[in-house]
Structures are given as C-alpha cells and as structure tokens.
From TrEMBL:
It comes from Oxalicibacterium faecigallinarum. HAMAP family: CobD_CbiB. Keywords: Cell membrane, Cobalamin biosynthesis, Membrane, Transmembrane, Transmembrane helix. This is Cobalamin biosynthesis protein CobD. GO terms for cellular component: plasma membrane. The lineage of its organism: Bacteria, Pseudomonadati, Pseudomonadota, Betaproteobacteria, Burkholderiales.
Length: 319
C-alpha cells in the first residue's frame, strides 16, 4: 500500500508538479502567521503552545480522514495516502532551478546561473564564480531533497502513516519560518521550540538519508566525512547530510568561516556551512561537473528508498 502510494504520488508530481502557491500551502502560511501574531509574546512556552496548535490543525483532520478511510476500505486508504504524499513531497519544487542552473553553467552562462541561484536561495549571488554557484546549488539540492522527499518517506512508513508525513512537513515548515535569519530576540525565543521539535523529528530520517548516500556512492569516504566533519557545521543535521553527500561524490562541500556561506533552500530554509574548512574535507573542490554527480546520487538514493519501501510492503503482505 505505502509503496504504491509513494509511486503514484511521484508519477502524478512528474506529470503535474504541485505549485508553490497552491491553496493548501497558502493556507498554511496564513495560519502560521496568524498563530505567531496571536501567541508570540517573547516567551518559549508561547512557542510551544503555538507549535502544538499549528501541528494539531493539520494532523487532527488527517487523522480523522485516515480513520474514516480505514473504515471504508483499502482503496480509500490508498487515495488518501496518495493525496497526502503528493501534498507533502516537494521533489519538483526545486528541481527546475537545479536543472536550469546546470544547463546555464554548462553553456557558460554564469549570469543566468547566478540569477537562478539568487531566485532559488534568496541570497546575494553577485560576483560568484561558476564553481561557487555549483557548490551552493549542490548543497541546497542535497538538503532540500532530504527534507522534501526522504524525510517524508520515513514518516509515512511509520505506523502513523499519512499523519506522520503531515506532522513532519508542518514541523519542518515551522522550524524554518519561525527561525529565519536576522529575527529579533523575541522571535528567536518564540521559535526555539519549533527548532528543537524538528531536530528530534528529523533525527532518524537525516541519518537514514546520509546512510543512503553512502550506500549508493563512495561508502568509505562518505562514512569518513560523516564521522570526522559533520560536527563542523553549526546545524548538525545539515552537517550530516552535506558531509556524507559530499564524501559519497568525492567532492568538498562547505566554506571556510571567513567566507560565511549561507545557503537557503527554495522555500527559505537556511543551510549553514560556515564552520567547514574545505581543505580538511575529503575529495576535490566542487565544480560544474559536481551538478551531474548530484543528480546521479539523488536518483540512486531515491531508487534505494523505493526498493526498501517495496521490500517492507512485501514483508507486510506476507506477514
């Protein structure tokens, strides 16, 4: 059931990608803003209450629909799962940016590549060299792939099913939107719980993603980089993903402290690689060729995940 839910959702997304300005996402942004304005008084416990209300606003209706679908029959469960996976996945939300940047750099059009990267990451790319554009695109792609694809895969495989996928997506969004860079001290305190909650919700998925990168890439270098360099990122989860992903491809990701590279995902989630010294990492410097390596790594990891989901589904049917 879960395998076909994910497969159908991926196929639908390939045929009709979900727009970033769709009504569900727009309502989520509006509700998150309203809850923050109503509850943010600069205290941590206000953030906990607001987080709980926001998650419940999405999880409770899905739980009721899931219970009703189970009562109706297996076809209703399949339809609900496909719908939830389609709404929570984001495989095509950023892939067009990555592909367009790759084409622009391959054609020597650095101006267009910088403009696309700026639109995608919402940061200043003026004066960036082609290799730096490529490196930031690779870093952003690896993190967004985890958060928009593999993290959702993990939670829909749990007994919570579609409820878990919804909680993961909402928690990821709140951790990002309530902890934007440059926020006031009052907002930092308010968003502290959202950040901690997502850290624990994402604790297992991020390590499974890193393991998948190691399995489908250079295993020894990926594990070595993970063990020795992941802690050099300010964000542990991002450090694990980028160190293992870079090691798997044999490239160096991250920037020295003085470069202060701050990468943002397509929906404004910060990827902080400021604490990593490239000369200490394994592999070569990231280049335009690294973009193609990233495409291969992501697709191989996706096939690995789908294979595991299929095996788990078969085991469940036989059991």
């Amino acid at each position: 059931m879960t395998f076909f839910s994910i497969l159908f959702a991926l196929l639908i997304e390939q045929l009709k990608p979900l727009r970033a300005d769709n009504p569900v996402y727009a309502w989520a942004r509006s509700l998150a803003g309203q809850i923050e304005r109503s509850f943010n008084a600069g205290q941590a416990h206000h953030g906990r209450l607001a987080w709980g209300l926001m998650v419940a606003a999405f999880a409770v209706p899905v739980a009721l629909l899931y219970w009703m679908a189970i009562k109706i029959g297996i076809l209703a469960v399949l339809v609900l799962n496909v719908l939830v996976v389609y709404l929570t996945l984001g495989f095509r939300h950023y892939s067009h940016f990555f592909t367009s940047i790759q084409l622009a750099l391959n054609n020597g059009d650095e101006i267009t590549a910088r403009a696309l990267l700026a639109e995608w990451t919402r940061r200043d790319t003026t004066g960036m060299e082609a290799d730096e554009v490529a490196r930031i695109a690779v870093e952003t792609a690896l993190v967004t792939t985890h958060r928009n694809v593999f993290g959702v895969f993990f939670w829909i495989l749990t007994p919570l099913g579609p409820i878990g996928a919804v909680v993961y997506r909402v928690a990821e969004y709140l951790a990002r939107i309530w902890n934007e860079p440059g926020a006031s001290a009052e907002r930092e305190e308010f968003g502290r719980f959202a950040s901690k909650a997502f850290y624990w919700i994402d604790w297992i998925p991020v390590r499974l993603t890193a393991t998948a990168f190691a399995i489908v890439g250079n295993f020894e270098d990926a594990i070595y980089a993970w063990r020795n360099f992941a802690a050099r990122w300010q964000d542990e989860a991002i450090g694990i993903i980028l160190s293992s992903g870079g090691g798997a491809m044999g490239i160096r990701l991250g920037a020295p402290v003085e470069a202060a590279a701050e990468v943002m995902t397509a929906d404004a989630a910060t990827v902080d690689s400021t604490n990593v010294e490239p000369e200490a990492a394994v592999g070569e410097e990231a280049s335009v060729r690294s973009l193609q390596s990233t495409v291969g790594l992501v697709w191989r990891a996706l096939l690995l995940w789908m294979s595991l989901v299929l095996l788990l589904s078969i085991a469940k049917w036989l059991g």
